[in-house]
Structures are given as structure tokens and as C-alpha cells.
Amino acid sequence: MTADISKHALVPKHTKVSDSEKDKICAAHNINSMQLPKIFKEDPAISKLGVKAGDVIKIERHSKTAGVVSFYRVVIDE
Amino acid sequence: MNHDVHKKIISINFGFFSPKQVTDVASAKVVTPELYDREGYPVDGGLMDLRLGVIDPGLRCKTCGQKLKECPGHFGYIELARPVIHVKFVRHVLDLLKSTCKSCARVLIPEENHKRYITFLNKVQEEEGFEARRRKIKEIVGKYKLKEKCPHCSAKQEKIKLEKPYNFYENEIRLSPIEVRARLEKIPQEDLSVFGFKENEFRPEWLVLTILQIPPVTMRPSITLESGERSEDDLTHKLGDIVRINQRLFENINAGAPEVIIEDLWDLLQYHITTFFDNAVPQLPPARHRGGQVLKTIASRLSSKEGRIRHNLAGKRTDFSARTVISPDPLIDLNEVGVPLVMAMRLTVPERVTEWNKEYLKKYVQNGAKKYPGANYVIKFDGKRKTITDETKEEILEELDTGYVVERHLIAGDIALFNRQPSLHRMSMMCHKVKILPGRTFRLNPAVCNPYNADFDGDEMNLHIPQTEEARSEAKVLMLVETQLISPRYGLSVVGCIHDAITGNYLLTKELVLTRPEAADLLYNCGVTDLSRLPNKEKIDGKEVFSMLLPADFSFIGKDKSGNEVKIVNGSLKSGVMDKSNLGQESGLMLRNIYETYGPSYTATLLGKISKLGIVVLARRGFSIGVRDMDLPQETRDEIQSIIQKSEDDVVRFIDQFYAGKLESLPGRTVQETLEVKIMEALNRARNKGADIAMRQVVNSTALTMAKCGSRGNPLNIAQMSAIFGQVALRGKRIEKGYKERTLSYFKKNDLSPKARGFIRNNFKSGLTPHEFFFGAMVGRDALMDTALRTPKSGYLYRRLSNAMQDLKVEYDGTVRDASSKIIQFAYGEDGLDVAKTKGGVVDVKKIVQHVLGVTQ
Predict the structure, then answer these.
(1) Which of A11, B436, B536, B753 is the most buried (most CB within 10 A)?
(2) Check: CATH 3.60.21.10 for A11-76?
(3) Is the Cβ–Cβ distance between B264 and B272 less than 8 Å?
(4) Which CATH number belongs to the domain containing residue B351 in this structure?
């Protein structure tokens, strides 16, 4: 029995970011994508997304202070 | 302080000294264990040889010709009669022995893999750094060290065992260090890189010492005792042992002594050299002084809190600092610190002489070091320091000129940094202005206790005097107490009125009506000199007196502690009372709003005035407490007793039901738990009811006043004094254990009654029965233990957090990044707000809009 944890109420929404948007994010912060926070390719929250290393994941979190907050992570393996 | 650069360090290399390097850097060979000759002069070739450096004043080093303090010391060496294994490298030696062939000395890795590993390791190092390479080496070496046959010469391999600390055995036959060394010598240069040794900088046989480096005398100075006797350093003692044994070993070998004797001496030499490096090798008895005290050798000089690293390198000491006990002084400003006169005469501030301040500084020099305010030193053009004494005073006054620096005593108004450990947040170290006071303690305004987390039960604090104009202005602008009023943690004032200051203002604004002279007196005493705003009438209300302190254009609407509206219109308090929720620390928006509108300096002054007003009001009015305050009329006491009795009866009924098996369990609980819940409920209800009744009776008590305005105490404290203490709870439950099946031997076994399980029906005034007292003490002890155990735990937790986050900072684009500019958070706190600029963490948009539009409330 495996549960799809991405459906769980406490797991924020993870989505893959398009390449053009990825470049936009990097440009906005004047960084290369490896300077973003990281997430393992095997992370249960993104296992269903079919991403590869180097992709950027957008996480929409609900914050007590700021409503919905987008957070970005770059996928890495190991 | 200008030094020419002769040589520039490009890189530092850590490695192992070869025997040749040891002799090359050595300036003396030590051959005799004697230290001094009959005249007390260091013996040539002894451990205190003058070529190894000087530690006596007047003597000159024979190597560099310099005097004491100038000569850095020079290394020497001794030649060992027999080789000895270096304890700190036995692990490496073992690895090398195990993974090389006993006959051809090649690594036990087949030729074809050898190359591959080396390229692999180089790649790992390039990509992941040296640490990763070390890990990989360990893996590879571990894989091959148990091979049975050499892949190069097919020789059979024997098992090599290490008997700690330094004896090697091959098939139960001991390998002497000579044999070990011989094997290591045979290992070919190119095989070394697999172990992670650099090919051209290291030979494994160096790990077996044939020559021992002698540290310079400057690192092991002897101490001359009062009796004129010399006491040598522990290291010198140890080296003496080594040289002595080495000498004897030489003699015995030359004389052809039996092998057993030589073996014994050799072993002893190994022991001494081992303890010279590390006197805490687990398997060896530590070397001791005659008195039994353990010798402090090289390893113990470096390690631990008192070691070279943490004590001397990481730990810094500072001049121009002071430490003493703190005590309160509500009459000094928030920005001030009271410094004892005796300290002010030792702490100095350098002031450069200019045309314009020459006469002013001369006065200090004139006073000298012993008369306050004076000066202790002058510094001349060439940087030479001159002490001001009665003899030198005239001369100094004569020559004092522009460009000199006078180190004058600390005077009122000087800038100082004040700090209390643990320095957990930035308000733990703030800048204060000095105020010189008699006595021996630092004085501080009790309102700043909160940011420092200080109290006066013996706390000590540190004071630092910045020595340059730059440091002083930086401290003043960035760290002055008034600039730190608003906490970056919750956006409210960290300082506020406390205790009497709150009570005083509460009484003043709530009920006091004063005559005009009385009001003027109060205001004058807290620093108000302009009384023109004081209403021109006979009787003046307390609220009007308080309003005098507020700025004339200040308006504010808030709530007091009991929820009533507090309204300030154009600098006059219209309704509501001043209590903790507006004056107190960490609460209320009144101080926050004043800070926002009128700035830090104004707020600090105002806070000082309000505090003083409160204290003066209490002093004039009188404020005291007595046992009588806790008196309840007989009827009330009877009422409370009957309530308690009723609940206890309820409890007895529950217990009976429980034993009869008729108690129905609550969902998710056992019957026992249900009983406990019901009993707790009934008893707490009794306590609350009793407390309520008591509170209705205790009306004119100062204790109640304090509880109401929030300065000290709460209604529960009053109830516990006057009505009923209530149930004692140990970890959320009634008292359960102590003796077998009962709490105290005074009770019957399995007694579930309130009395036997820590219900205290008395109050502090009526007095507790012995068992009630004991139950109270149990909880008190438990709470004490809890805090004692929790403090270091949470302290360590905090330390780890602050160390992990110390290099995070908010960049100009609003992101939080670490030192390598990796992003940690895209907006600080997810909302990008600077909490110190919010009001309790919220931005009051409505007020900002009103302000912009010019709407007044």
C-alpha cells in the first residue's frame, strides 16, 4: 500500500517550472540555478512529477504571515 | 607600528618532519640529561642549552644572539639509540603494514587497478575536495588490506595485529620498531599516493622515530620559586626522562648487555616518548610527578577548553574592560550606566592633544593618576608610553604638545559598551553613557533589566570602553540603549515601566486627586520644569498630571489591561488608566507609537520621566502590605470551607463509585483515568470558586492593586494566600508515588482521597499541615530540577541554531542568503517585513493611510 503524499493536506503544492520561467527566476535574483535551495529527485513530494536534475520546482506554501508564498527549489540527484 | 614586509607567506603546508629536516633546523644536539652545572649555568648539550633559546634575563641566545623576549627559541634534537614508534601515527603504520606485501612491499592492489584508483582519487579530490578523497582512500585501503596473497610477487600474507598502544604482532610474533621501519622503508614511492600520502614530501618510515625533535626552551620555561629554587616545566621533565633512558640504552648496547635488559630499556624509552606526545593514551598509565600529579605534555597543552586552541587562539582577552556586580538605580537615565569611581580611575580614554584642547587636557595631567579626574599615561609622538607620576608630572606638562595622546580617566558622558552573558540577542550588548558614582557596583536603570535578562541577585556584568573616535561614534549611533528599544523579534518595546513605576502611574491615573502644589511637586521631581500646561485650578486630577508628560500633539486609542478604552487626545489622557498593557515592557502600542512619531531619544527620556513619576507617586502616597490584607471575614471563610467540603464529598462519591465498579469511563480513557479526571475537575472547581469568593472580599489590598495593574502577582497568588492553595500537580497529575501504594507513610495504602494525593485545603495565611507542606515542597523541588536541567539543554540548542545561521543576511533584493550567496529564503520571514519596523509584527495600514490623508481620529 502506497499513499500519494502529494494529496495530503499538509504537503504544499509542488509544480515543475517551465524553462523560460526558470530563467526568469534566476535572472530576477541574479543567480545561477544551483544557488537555489535544493530538493532530491527522489523526494516523495515530487516523485510523481517526473522531473530530472536541474529542473526547478515551484512550491506554493500557505503562510501565516504572508498568505500564499512561492518558493523555488532546484532538483538534484543525490 | 610600521613593519617592512620581508617575506610574504604564499601557502602553508602541514606535513611530517623528516629526520634530515629535524637535524637541519636543529641548533643543538642534546646529549646529557643534566640541566645546569654547579653554578646554575645551563650545561652545553643539556636540555636548557643556551643554543635552544633564553629564558633568563641578561643572558644571550647562542644561536641568534638576542635577549630574552627577542629570541623566539630554537629546536634541538636527540638521536635515539633504538627507533621508537610515534603513538599518534600507529593507525597509519598499521594500515600500511596490513595493506602492503611482507616480501616485496608493494600495495596489495593488482597492477591494472592501481592506475585506475589513482585517477579516480584525483577526480574525487578535484570535484568534492580533500575530505571526500580521504573517505574514498579509507574505502579502497579497507578493501585490500585483508588479501591473502600478494598480487605482485604471490607471497603469502600474514595477519598483522596491533596490540594497543604501539606493539605490532605478526602471527603472534612481535615486530620490533626496527622491523616495522625496515618494512616501511621498502614501500615504493609511487604506491604511497593510494594511501593519500604525497609522493615527494613523505616517507612512511619517518613514522618510526630515529631522532627526536626537542622543542625550544622558550616553550617550556622554568619557574624560579621564591626560595630561589628552580622548578622545571613538565615537558622538560619528560624530555629529561627520555634523554636519561636513551643514554642508558646507548651504554648498555655498547657494553653488550643481555638482550632482556636492552629490551626493557627500549620499552621504557618507547613509553617515555609516547607520554611525551600524549599523556592520556588509554592503555598506558599516565606519567606522574613525584607528588602523583599527572604531567601536562604536548597533547594536553592543545586540547580542551583550557588548551592552546580554545583558550589562547579562539579565546581573546581585552583591555579597557571591567566587570562587577550590578545593582539598580531608578534615578539614572535609561541610557546611563553607573560606574564606580575606583574603576573610572583605572579605565582610560585616549585623547589626542590639539591646539584647542591642550589646556583642557593639561588639567587631567596636572591631577595625575591618583586624583580624579586625572590621567594615567601620555603617549608621545614616537608611540612611547609614559606613566604619569608625581616625579614625571612636571616634565610631561612641560613637553606636552599637539600630537601627544593623553589617556585620561573615564568621565561622565563617556561612551561604554555594557554586556551581560549569555549574549543571546543584540540587546545583550548595548551602549551606555558613563555616570561616575560612589560604591563598587555598576548601576543601571531597572527598566533595562529586561533586554539584558538581568536581576540583582548577584548578577555581574561587563563594561568595555571603546578607544577610538570611530568605535565610539559607531557604538553611540548603532548600539545606544534608546536605539534598541523596539525588539526585532516582536516589534514592540523591550523596555518599559516595571513594578512600582506601573503601580504608581496606575494609582495616579485611576484615583488620585491632588492639590496644585502637590502636582507641581510630583512633576518637578520627575524632571518636568515647564508647568505651563498644568490646568489652573485647585484640585488637579491624576490623569491631568500624567498628561503633562505626554507630547502636546500625541493622540492614541488603545485598551488597558481590563479591556477598557484608553484614550489620549492631543496629549491629554481622557479616559482609561495607565497599567501594564500600555506602560509595561513587551506589551502595548502606546510606547511603540511614541517611538514612531517622536523618535528614540524622546521615547527614552519620556520613559524615564514616566518611571520616575510612578515611583514618586508611590513614595508620596505610601504603598505597603500586611498580613491583614489577606484577612477574610468569618462568613467568607465558612463559605469557602463548605465549598471545599462539598467537592471533597463529591470526590468521595466518585471513589465509592469507582470501587463499586459503577463509574462509567469517558471515551478513550480507562476507568482509573476517568476517576482522576473527575477528581481533578471537582477539586479545581472548588479552588476556583474559593478564589473567586476570596477575591470579592479582598478589595482594599495593595496586593490586589498590583495584580490588577499587572506590576506584580496575579489573583491566584492572592487566593493562595487568603483562601485556598488548591491541588498540587506533579507532571499534570495528582501526587501518585512516594512509598509503596501510597504517597506518604502517614496515609493508608491505596488512599485516593484528595488529602492523600496532594490537595491542600489550607492557605498560606492559615498555614499548611505537615503533609500539605511536604507535597508543596515536592512540586517545588520538581520545578527546580526541571529548570536546572532545561537551561543547559535549551542553551545548547540555541547555540547550535545561532552558529548555523550566523552568516545569513538579508540582501538588498530582499532575499535571505548565506555567505556563498546561496538563497535560503526568497523573502525574509516569507512576507519580507522588518519586524522592528512593524507594530507587534503587523503593519497598521489603516493608520498609515489616515496619516497620509491627514485624517485625525
Answers:
(1) B436
(2) no
(3) no
(4) 2.40.40.20
Residue B285 lies in a domain: yes
Adjacent-strand bridge partners of B85: B208
Among B820, B826, B829, whose Cβ lies nearest the Cβ of A65?
B829
B823 closest CB neighbour out of A35, A65, A66? A35
Q: CA of A46, closest CA in chain B: separation in Å?
A: 20
CATH number (domain holding residue B698): 1.10.132.30
Q: What is the CATH number of the domain that holds B510?
A: 1.10.274.100
Please, are residues B585 and B447 in contact by the beta-carbon 8 Å criterion?
A: yes
Q: Is the predicted pLDDT of residue B848 greater than 70, yes or no?
A: yes
Among residues B767, B769, B749, the alpha carbon closest in space to that of B758 is found at: B769
**What pLDDT is recorded for position B246?**
93
Domain of residue B106, residue span: 88-206
Residues B168 and B94 in one domain: yes
pLDDT recorded at residue B611: 92
Helices B671-697 and B634-660 sit at what angle, rounded to 10 degrees?
A: 170
Shared domain for B333 and B475, answered yes or no, is: yes
Cβ contacts (< 8 Å) between B812 and chain A: which residues? Answer: none
Question: Where residue B740 falls among pLDDT bands split at 50, 70, 90?
Answer: confident
Same domain, B443 and B371: yes
CB contact under 8 A, B830 and A37: no
- B324 and B318 Cβ atoms separated by less than 8 Å: no
User: Does residue B52 lie within any of the structural domains?
Assistant: no
User: pLDDT at position B146, please?
Assistant: 65
List chain A domain ranges: 11-76
| Residue type at B647 in one-letter notation | S
Residues of A whose CB is below 8 A from B821: 31, 35
Q: B822 and A35: CB-CB below 8 Å?
A: yes
Quickly count: other Cβ atoms within 10 Å of residue B506's Cβ. 28
Chain B hits for A30, CB-CB cut-off 8 Å, are 813
Q: Is B78 within the bounds of a domain?
A: no
Instruction: Tell me what pLDDT residue B856 has.
Output: 60
Does any domain span residue B71? no
Give residue B119's pLDDT: 80
In a shared domain, residues B592 and B540 = yes
- Pick from B95, B99, B101: nearest CA to B153: B101
Mean pLDDT of chain B: 88
Interface test with B, best of A22, A24, A31 (most B CBs within 10 A): A31
Give the type of residue at B597: T
Same domain, B340 and B473: yes
Domain end (from B311, B333, B367): B311
- Write out the H or E segment, with its range, that includes residue B242: helix B234-254
- Mean per-residue pLDDT of chain A: 86
Q: What is the mean pLDDT of residues B450-467?
A: 95
pLDDT of B200 reads 80
- Flag whether the pTM goes above 0.80: no
Q: Do B351 and B463 have their domain in common?
A: yes
Q: What is the pLDDT of residues B62-92, one digit of tens each?
A: 888 888 888 888 999 999 999 999 999 998 8
Q: B86 in helix, strand or coil?
A: coil
C-alpha dihedral, B119 to B122 to B126 to B128, nearest 10°: 100
Asked if B727 and B678 count as a contact pair (C-beta separation under 8 A), the reply is: no
- Indicate the residue among B446, B481, B516 that finishes a domain: B481
- Please give the tally of structural domains in chain B: 6
- B675 pLDDT tier (thresholds 50, 70, 90): confident
Query: What's the count of helices (H) and strands (E) in chain B, helices before strands?
Result: 25, 27
Q: How far is CA A44 from the centre of its chain?
A: 12
Q: B600 and B698: one domain?
A: no
Q: Do B823 and A31 touch (CB under 8 A)?
A: yes
Q: What is the mean pLDDT of residues B238-264?
A: 91
Residue B412 shares a structural domain with residue B460: yes
Residue B830, chain A, CB below 8 Å: the answer is yes
